[in-house]
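User: I'm curious whether this sequence folds into something compact or stays loose and floppy. Could you predict its structure so I can see for myself?
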Amino acid sequence: MKFPDRSQTAPAVRFSRPALLAVLALALAAGLPAVACGSAAELAPAPAAAAPGSAPQDPPQQAGADEPEDSEDSEDAASAAGESAGEEPAAAAQEPAGGDEARPKVPTTREEVEIPEGATAVDIGGFGVHVPRKRRAVEPPDGEWLADPVSERRYFLERLPKSETWSWVNDDHTHIRHGAVGMYEVETELDDAFLVRVYDPTEGTHWEPPRPPTAEELAAVAAAFQAATSDSDRLRFAALDRGLPDRGQWRNGFDVADMNGDGHLDIVHGPARKGGPSTPMILLGDGAGGWRRWPEVRLPNVRYAYGDVRAADFDGDGHLDVALAQHLQGVQVLLGDGKGTFRLASKGLPWELPGQGGDAGGFSSRALAIADWNGDGRPDLLALGEGPRPARESGHGTRGLLPSSSFGVAVFVNELGRDGGGWSRVDQGLEFGEVFGDALAVGDFDGDGRLDFVTSSNVFGRRHLLGIGAEGGGWRYTEVDALRPDSFTKAVAAADFDGDGRDDLAVSQVSNQAGKWWTALDVLYSRPDGWRRRTLAAGEGRGDFATALAAGDVDGDGSTDLAAVTEAGATWVFLGDGEGFFTRESSPEIPAMLGGCTGYHVAIVDVDADGRGELIEAYAGEPSAVFDPGRCPSLGAIRAWDPHPAAPAVAAESGATP
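Assistant: Here's the prediction. I'll summarize afterward.
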């Protein structure tokens, strides 16, 4: 699918909205011709809204970037490429020819008016008004129409840069006003642009606002977002971060393993996105809360990018190696000798530098998992595609989307020990594989002894997120019907929370129901007859939600607990009893990150060998001069927290049972 790029059109003179309205008023008073209101592609009518109870129109999708002014992916594409590779986006639709005679005049009422051929809407007092008159035919650049599953209307996607003036039309953030008078339905929000729907104007209908939900409908939705946990205060957390970086953007993931064989766990992290090293980093632990960067590390002289990291012995030599999922570049494996020297072993893995030859629009990822997928005793790699890949031509300042195959899950089978060995890719095509996200977990969810996987999703409403492993190394995508409808699935984790021998799911979702946004952290218990859901945390709005999850034993009682870091930089801990019930632990000793840096990864590991799992967390963010100048002034940090039992009297006071 090619997306027209509005940024390739000639720059236009822009006015503020009050100034534009003043000009319109003066023009009307003087009887002068009014300004044009845009081409057919610019002002294609929005679809009819779904009534409550049916699937709502898709809110803006988030391709791994939730910060309006943080043009992370576009900057990375530009810096990695210089001049972007791939096809140049198709030219945007042009204004109707013919001068003022072909342009609509601005009316003074909302009554339907005669519109010259080539226009589909006019603006009255700053509100887009769609007029079902003659419309110029528009066609997708590649000839391929998409269809809305609710209204069945045809549309294609167009890319509108955020460099032009824009604003949200509604609180649900499903429509934007772009430029002077254009209004659009948002399909996906990227760091530096929006993908919007351009509907077939020959099927156009007058847009009407959705019917407000009834009190009963709101009550039913609110009842579904109620947490089923009690509070506890059985632990005290102490900082265990001596030597950890307290600045820099640390995303998207890390691993904890004994990289130098000294018996102490170390932290392996990819390069910082900003404000830190530009190469992967290994922080050696001393087992007592101290960390230092491994000075003997020698890495191949290649370009690295931020993403996810996993450690394993891929070549069977007894030394740990490193796998890297790198934003816009692909996947690499570095084989280690246990003394700090690493060499590339990436034959068969997708890895290209955009703009430097090869398939710059190939598969790339920011989420990895390691598992013996084919049962041959060797660790294999699973990677989740990161989705659309923005690009920018430095010579002309134009921006677009590279052709990309970064969707769905790919399994890379380890064949390093064989003659000429490397990695062999297995995937299932794009049956439900157009999903993309930043979290991936592996477990046996159906109890058949074969590994399965589950992913997060930055595609709104997608619930086919479970890959059930099949004989021969394949899998089949399965719907998890206990996932909340009309949602983004932001984070996932897998563990047997209730001790029945089947792995269960922990999921964080952001949902749009009954015209409102809601957030929920749920545990989905796998049963032979389906899934059962228990809500650990929930709330109305999008103020805060879990962005990364980890399962492990925090309090040392032998049961699996759950930890989360959040969009606003907080830490949540839920203590499990081994039978599927949880209490929400009060943890005021762990302050939220200053300025609301977003949590990107959390792990529960016993660093000091005391039987309790420490929390290790990574954060990233940056200020926005326009929207949030005080956000995340440190750009991020890596933190660690050591749990200890609270004083007996304190623990007894709060020990409510679930």
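Summary: The CA atoms of residues 18 and 232 lie 54 Å apart. The chain has four helices and 40 strands.
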